Amino acid sequence: MCAILMGGAHPSFAQQHLFTLDECRQMALQNNIKVRNQKLSIEQAGETEKEMRAKYLPTVKAGAGYFHADRDIVKASLDGKQINQLGNMATAMGIDAVALSGIPTSLTLLDHGLLSGVMAMLPVYAGGQIHNANKLAKVNSEVQNLIMRQTTDEIIQTTESYFYQLSKLYENQHTIITAQKQVSSIEKDAELAVKVGVKLKGDLLSVKLRKDELSSDSLKLENGIALCRLVLAQYVGAEDVKAFDIVRSFNENIRPATDYLVNFNDALSNRAEAALLDKNVAAASLQTKLKRGAMLPTLAVGAAGTYYNFDKGRANIMGMATLSIPISAWWSDNKGVKKARLAEQQAMQTRTDNRQKLLIQMQSAYNDLDNAYKQTLIARQSVTTSEENLRLNQNYYRAGSSTMTDLLNAQTSNRMANNKLAEAKADYMLALTKYLKAIGK
Q1: Mean pLDDT per 10-residue section of the chain, whose length is 441 residues
Q2: pTM of the entire structure?
Q3: Which helix (H) or strand (E) holds 186?
Q4: Cα 232 to Cα 242: distance, rounded to the nearest angstrom
Q5: How many Cβ atoms from other residues are within 10 Å of residue 275's Cβ?
Q6: Cα–chain-centroid distance for residue 22?
Q7: Which residues have a Cβ under 8 Å from the Cβ of 418 and sit 6 or more positions away?
Q8: Which 3 state secondary structure label does DSSP give 113?
Q9: According to the model, what pLDDT value does residue 399 have?
Q10: Which residues contact 248 (CB under 8 A, 6 or more apart)?
């Protein structure tokens, strides 16, 4: 089970459980319909591989038939015309005409009989079509596994996006609670100042208005949290969305972008997209070989066994070989080969172009991560500055050298700085996810 409670038990939704980011990832991967469907696609590709491997085995055909004529077909001996007549009858009954090779040409009469036969043919050479078809089936299986990697990356990225968005809202909620405590402290100072006649009652009213604003913002934030939590719970497939919640803490391990810097050319080998481009080229090359193989001769060897009881039971066994030369395909299928070569060239050009785009994507993701890290540094400094500014204004107000407006503005600046820090941390974590995805990690 993806979500594990303390002690290793399965999660119970009777009581609220706080899910970690890793648990949310695992739940999303387990319950997402795209993942389940892609698993079926992988199984289908595996069955196709097995089907193609069976082409290496001999093909076996068996048939039997009985006939009863209203008059004797022959009364003395079989001439060429009568042999052909029997051949047509055998074919109509689904028996290979080869089965007639052992029939005696001299019979006294023939008005009924039983024909049966078994034939096995093994392909010896088919222009590489069987071999290349098997390789193409294997490529398809590898493609389906790469698509699963892509699907997994997308689901994880979406899950983390919802998770960090909700985490940011919880940070904002914590900031509002802190601001409400600050305003309550300011209100006490204002009440005391008004009571002793140092300040006017307008200061107290300004504080009460600010408290109302914070209450309104808190209500809006609670609604936003409820909606975001519902979206995340449904996305990861939580059994009870009402009991679903997350661990309310940000990952404070925010490191410089340089700590994650890698060689982008080397990282290309880790990208599922780059591997898919290679598979696309390989598949196009195999398609060309298959088209070319269809123009080559095919050779097969086999054996046939026949049994008949026209005059008396008799069985025959014979070996055979067939050689097929597709003469008309030499000019009709040649166009198909040229078309396949053009498609192969197109796949190679697309791979070169898209690999360059992937390198650009890596650089862009790294730049975004670097910028996000620097924004967290700026946001932290702003929080430190705003806290000091609030402390000074509180002291100034108590000393009578500052106005209530200045104090409330300082408090607002402090709240906005904390909100910006929460947003910067969320942006950093999302940028890190995007970057790690870009370098195939």
Answers
A1: 35 64 93 92 91 83 71 57 65 57 53 73 81 91 94 94 94 93 87 77 87 94 95 91 85 87 92 93 91 83 76 74 78 80 93 95 96 96 95 88 89 94 94 94 85
A2: 0.76
A3: helix 129-195
A4: 11
A5: 19
A6: 18
A7: 171, 175, 178, 383, 386
A8: strand
A9: 83
A10: 18, 167, 170, 174
Maximum C-alpha span of the chain:
142
The amino acid sitting at 232 is L
The gap from C-alpha 25 to its chain's centroid, in whole angstroms, comes to 14
Q: What is the pLDDT of residue 391?
A: 93
Spatial contact of 182 and 389, defined as CB atoms under 8 Å apart: no
Q: What residues contact residue 242 under an 8 Å CB cut-off, 6+ apart?
A: none
Q: What is the pLDDT of residue 424?
A: 95
Residue pointed to by tokens 């998770």: 163
**Strand pairing of 244-246 and 298-308?**
unpaired
129's tokens = 């079509």
Q: Helix, strand or coil for residue 291?
A: helix
Question: CA distances (Å), 411 to each of 176, 279, 424, in order?
Answer: 11, 59, 20
**Alpha-carbon distances, residue 435 vs 2, 29, 142, 148, 334 (angstroms):** 25, 20, 25, 19, 47
Residue 101 in tokens: 């090779």
What pLDDT is stored for residue 97 in this prediction?
A: 57
**Paired residues of 315 in beta bridges:** 307
Which parts of 243-317 fold into alpha helices (H)?
Answer: 264-267, 272-293
Of 380, 165, 166, 362, the residue nearest 254 (C-alpha) = 380
Cα Rg of the chain (Å, integer): 40
Q: 69: which DSSP letter? A: -
**What six digits make up the tokens of 119?**
């034939």
The per-residue b/e assignment along 104-139, b for 16 or more CB within 10 angstroms, e otherwise, is eeebeebeebebbbbbbbebeebbbbbbbbbbbbbb
Tokens of 116: 């049966």
